[in-house]
Amino acid sequence: MATSAIVTRTVDAENEFTDPIYLRATRQSGSYRGVVRIVGTSFVGTIELQARLSGESTFVPFKEYTANVLENIELFAPMELRIGVATGDFTSGSAVVAIIPA
After folding, report:
1. Which among 23, 10, 6 is positioned nearest to 73, based on CA atoms?
2. Residue 94 and residue 97: Cα distance in Å, rounded?
């Protein structure tokens, strides 16, 4: 079951992801907002933000990152998100990844 609290994880291998999260709709716009945060001093690889719509069983790629980032995200439909390293996308090091609801 997805949470609506901050999710975070240290990734240091492939196929490691945060727990799923639902972003809450904001009163002002009705959109779903949050922040993606990635911090890794030695990470080499690709970190992937993945999404799935309600009722679906499979996460699909939404956006990829290869460097540290602090980025606002805005969705216009409710969906579950997770962030981490997919199979085949890890080279070396580690990074702390997080999705923070607005």
Report:
1. 23
2. 10
